[in-house]
Amino acid sequence: MIHFIVPIRHPDTVRDPAHQMVCLRQLFASFDNQTSKRWRAIVVTNEGQVLPDRPDNLVVQTVELPATHHESGSISKTEMYEAIRADKGARIAAAMSHIGPDDQVMIVDDDDLIHRDLVHFVDQHPPDRFWYVAEGYFWENGSNRLGKMDDIFQNCGSSLIVPRNCYAMFEEPHLGRDYVIKELGSHRLIFDRKPIGSGIWSAIPFRAVIYRVQHSNASLTRFARDTRTGMRAGPFLSRARALARGVRKGLRGDPRGGVGVWPLTAKIRNAFFGKD
To answer: Which of 55, 85, 177, 197 is surrounded by the most beta carbons within 10 Å?
Structure first.
């Protein structure tokens, strides 16, 4: 069985609570839209977090974690991301203890969406398999177009399905709690112990995730606004901005490769958005 873990950050660090509710409602509909019901979702929140109506397979786990980063002030990009990952990792660790040792885990960010056939596909294979989403879409919120993106697992936190016991938390606890939390909070760190080219990973053979970008609560959004201060945008952020411009102009593709702009068709909407 797949267990989705959705870590929701402290309410004090959310710039736009109304938009967060929109994203959560769409994510929960995406779960409920799965063609196989062999899944369970654990949403990890602080006490008092407001949530939309949720499917029967979804449970809420509350934690007492402080707000560890702030969207205003003099905090640097590096400091902000370290704080986000520490908070995210601690929330995921709290949920891990409620998952069976033979089950698989997919960590899902609260603003992403997953394909309706993902659980059914993974469930047709042994539960000790490691999966990554090689291809997906990214989408500027509210647009009627989206981008096709290859190697999306390099950027999107909702892109790995891993046997629970293969995380360092269970497999190598001697590495210490700091490492365990960091691995859970940063999806690419597991590749240090289990490289993508090691032969244990298999690619999901369809575009399985929509990665929502440049919305009011996205971590990248803050730094998209800070370039006037002299902070240089990273290559992915520059690429996301270019795609967003392309989406708005209605372009059909991006000649730089790896990204193409396509209509958000009824077929794609039905595959990801469910009955929201």
So the answer is: 85
